[in-house]
Fold this sequence. Notes:
CATH architecture: 6 Propeller
Radius of gyration: 17 Å
Structural class: mainly beta
Shape: globular
Mean pLDDT: 91
Strand order of the largest sheet: 1-2-3-4
Largest sheet: 4 strands, antiparallel
Number of helices: 1
CATH topology: Neuraminidase
Amino acid sequence: MKLRLFYSILQVGFILANCTYVNAQTEPNWSLDSRQIAFVIYKNDHSDIYTMKADGTEVKRLTSDGSNEWFPRWSPDGRRVLFWSDRGGNSDIYVMNADGSSVKRLTSDKAKDRYGSWSPDGNKIVFNSDRNGVDNIFILDLKTDEVTQLTFNEKRCSFPNWSPDGDLIVYRMDYNIYTISVAGGKPNQLTTDGSSSAPYWSPDGLVITYYSSKNGGVSQIYSIDKDGNNEEQLTSSNSENDECYYGQISSDGNWLLYRRGVSIEKKHMKSGKTIKLIEESK
């Protein structure tokens, strides 16, 4: 119930992970070469997209139009950032240059289109939409503007991400993690705990990271093989104020990037060393 409450609040632009946080850095995303990080700052019930170098320096604000922007995703060539926004009066998918210029709206359905992610070749995006009554997964061809529905479920599907080889989509359904072929068909369920969310592929496409509150009710980052085997907990937290979300592995496999509490940090996968990249918004 707590995790579901967190997500309902997040989607209207608030960040209240435990009823005390109102300012936070969240939703970090590596560029393909892991030299840059795109992320969101929530401050005073408002969200904007920023970028910074992998060491936390050169923080740059990309959006400032007064709307709420969420879930930035670097394009494969590192030149553009995909995101979703309410700037048009509804939740839709947008893209902009890496410096925040040339914002373009990609979806304009009256439904809520959210959580976009690029195909490896940059020619398509996958996203979730409730255009048929409940959130399912759709693919948009950026060259033809053709939209194809991929999942047909009665339970909400969200957080889709494309595999590096282009063959699979990982996503969340009913707070468990699934994969499905980009051609459609029967999905493969990877987790069964009912509290898993925000799955991301490792750069080699063999492992999926996600967060879950399965152990003790505190959200941690986990990894699991794409076939559902060899689950491993990657972070540890002592309290709800220290929970971890949105874990992603760097291109060289050495670093795990994630949100801890209200800040963004990275952890060295071998040594366990952690570095806080950006502090809580004031």
